[in-house]
Amino acid sequence: MSDTTAPPRQLHLNINVLHSGFVPSAWRLPDADPHAFIDVGHYVRVAQIAEAAKFDAVFLADNASIVEQIDFRPITALEPTVLLACVAAATTHIGVIGTASTSYNEPYNIARRFATLDHVSKGRAGWNVVTTADLGSARNFGRDAVPDHAGRYARAAEFTDVVKALWDSWEDDALIGDKVSGRFIDTDKVQPIAHHGTHFSVQGPLNLPRTPQGHPVLVQAGGSADGRDLAARHAEAVFSASQSLEESQAYGRELNARAAAYGRGPHAVKILAGLTTIIGATEADAIRRRNELIDMIPWSYNINRLAGILGVAPDRIKLDERLPDDIGLPNKGNGNHTFFNATLAQARLHGYTARQLVYALAGGGGHRVVVGTPEQIADDIEHWFKAGAADGFNLMPDALPSGLQDFSEGVVPILQKRGIFRREYEGTTLREHLGLARPAGRKGIAAAA
Amino acid sequence: MSDTTAPPRQLHLNINVLHSGFVPSAWRLPDADPHAFIDVGHYVRVAQIAEAAKFDAVFLADNASIVEQIDFRPITALEPTVLLACVAAATTHIGVIGTASTSYNEPYNIARRFATLDHVSKGRAGWNVVTTADLGSARNFGRDAVPDHAGRYARAAEFTDVVKALWDSWEDDALIGDKVSGRFIDTDKVQPIAHHGTHFSVQGPLNLPRTPQGHPVLVQAGGSADGRDLAARHAEAVFSASQSLEESQAYGRELNARAAAYGRGPHAVKILAGLTTIIGATEADAIRRRNELIDMIPWSYNINRLAGILGVAPDRIKLDERLPDDIGLPNKGNGNHTFFNATLAQARLHGYTARQLVYALAGGGGHRVVVGTPEQIADDIEHWFKAGAADGFNLMPDALPSGLQDFSEGVVPILQKRGIFRREYEGTTLREHLGLARPAGRKGIAAAA
């Protein structure tokens, strides 16, 4: 055995802390606390379990309005950057990725808040860049209608340009802090960005030194053409939603080709596929757990949710019939394309009735669901990973923390034994976990020019 | 001795964590770390010292641009809500008050972030409501000029109305979480706010349940007429800047009279006067410490800073002459009125030269500075407190953590011995520390109507 053998490629795992878990009824399990969605202790516990299992990062979604049927389930409620600061304070290695919208924020504020999160976590922050498409959010920010899809993404692209420029407005070595001479900061190394664009005019510089990672890691999740373009331009990791291995392979290839067209290196974007797991000691146990969870969701909830994703009136969904044939036109551009497509594809491919579709999606709207033993789940993950369908997974266990505990105790050791997942952290920053380079600062850019 | 004797009125103490301390050269002290201003560990250490001394709260200022001469001193850099989440995670009782501007934020985002801070701190959050008056900030948010003073305060007042309405958009008992029936939230108890005002249209509700304190504590610091009006309408505590006891008494009387005109109860607003302390074992030691600190500030810095506060060209400030006689017209409405007035009053009252003024203000711009032994400082505090010139103090030690350590070890025990400062926390929320009632929610408002 040669010690010059390259170590095998390693997969990446994020834990997506969807409050009580992915399945809408997770809060009703005997060991669940209905208050978990607003309990910082819940998020800290989940993060600590994930850190003990050597996950790359904690991931938090976000919304700017109530987008769920709260009579039956929890919502994303606590603001991610504040919550992740608490998570960072209670952990030492795991990354902290928070979602923030480019639609109803200002780039200066977002640059500053994620840079702060990177400073306080000592280099573990990531920003999941999204646009916001629901009418409820629009009406919380002075608008009567949702901005159109192309406009949202144009704003998002310019927004992200500005944020990155602000992060680079201080050179890495601008801080002198020389007590003898009294020089604190070398102001030649702190420069305005003087951005004057279509959507924003931002003079800069940021009022905060460059962060441990240079830039917090940029994450994106868009599946539409505009979303993929934004990801190709800016994202270092994407949270994707693909139902089939071939689709995910094609998605990754296409995205990295787009990135290359922006002058980025080969395989610049890590594909982290959304994955919901429902684990049992036997396959039958796992299916039983899934069915018990689904049976705790009111059917009225499921029908409304399906109708919402598919953009049809709820009374057109008949539980024991297939979906109406006339669904399938592109939706109006303000829903979630990825979830629309994935949900419809699942239904058509298998000829599911609406009821069967809900079981197959575990009450969700488009992410892939794997139900089985730890061995079966590890096999699935290894298969996708080795086939190049994903660089890793954004894990959404059925219920939290129980589903993560089962994954950490059951699946992670198998992946480690197979040599595709770390047994120890090798670095301390999120970039190091993900194998991403630290972006050169302005001086680096100038030197290279 | 009767055990029915009312306990004496207790004073309140906030620690204002101005990075390395109030004096611009504090970072140059031998025991100071120049990186402290971006080190979460520094803020946590200061908070833990203050909590051990039973302070009411940690207070963080904020800016949306670089407003200091960074070649000579640190700045407020880390975003307060993210930083305070870390402070809350490392403490159990002390309040966490952060500054956020109404000028360049949206009320929905601010309502959500401070509500999140209140949830994660279990009822210890406060929001210091400010407007932003510097051109640098305006240019970071797409504007070429600073909005006028009246416009800023009109926006701030409506902004605060909206935030409070959002905080009340969930009744306290809206969350059911009944696993048996599957009812999660009583949607009758979560209602839109449907605000359509001059500056904002916000539909609501907030996507977050009501917080432990009902509302995070509202703090304000404005000294102008518009600022006082905003404080009278909304503030539960003000961070004031008065150089004389009589001025502070008058300020408190006037503010509470204005508050009464808004239908608020007697003494609705706690006056927390800004206070900088420079402590020595003897008075001579304290003066020596002050002089050493001042002598480490470049005089060019001091002149520029004075000129900025007074709104004159730096070349009009002569170090060993009195300030020019023609200073004294009201400034143009975009500076800080309080600091302008206080600085000028100090200079005129004592006939100081510019150099003497810098020593008297300890390099600052308007807050009162007390230099002396722990006993002298305790005497000053007790005098102000018993004369009704303040309900407490927003403490800005010369240097941090050393100046706070000296205060905690030297001054606090004297105040405790004199019976005017707590020896133990009696409650767990910031409202309890400050003796503020928990605001009734919407149901309470409806029942009272």
CATH class of chain A, named: Alpha Beta
Quick one: how many beta strands of chain A?
A: 11
Count of helical segments of chain A? Answer: 15
Shape summary of chain A: globular
Low-pLDDT stretches of chain A are: none
| CATH H-level superfamily title of chain A | Luciferase-like domain
Q: What can you tell me about this protein's structure?
A:
- The structure is a homodimer of 449-residue chains.
- With 449 residues, the first copy, chain A, is of the alpha/beta class.
- Chain A has a single domain, classed as Luciferase-like domain (TIM Barrel).
- The first copy, chain A, contains 15 helices and 11 strands.
- In chain A, α2 packs parallel to α3 and α5 runs parallel beside α6.
- The model of chain A has no long low-confidence stretch (mean pLDDT 93).
- At the A-B interface, α2, α3, α4 and β6 of A face α2, α3, α4, β5 and β6 of B.
Keywords:
homodimer, 449 residues, alpha/beta, TIM Barrel, eight-stranded parallel beta barrel, two-stranded antiparallel sheet, 15 helices, 11 strands, globular, LLM class flavin-dependent oxidoreductase (chains A, B)
SSE arrangement:
The structure is a homodimer of 449-residue chains.
Chain A: E1 12-16, H1 40-52, E2 57-60, H2 80-89, E3 95-101, H3 107-120, E4 125-130, H4 135-140, H5 149-167, E5 195-196, E6 201-202, E7 217-220, H6 225-234, E8 237-240, H7 245-261, E9 270-279, H8 283-295, H9 299-310, H10 337-350, H11 354-360, E10 368-372, H12 374-386, E11 392-395, H13 402-417, H14 430-434, H15 442-448
Pfam families (chains A, B): Bac_luciferase
InterPro entries (chains A, B): Diverse_substr_monoxygenases (IPR051260), Luciferase-like_dom (IPR011251), Luciferase-like_sf (IPR036661), NTA_MOA (IPR016215)
Keywords (chains A, B): Flavoprotein, FMN, Monooxygenase, Oxidoreductase
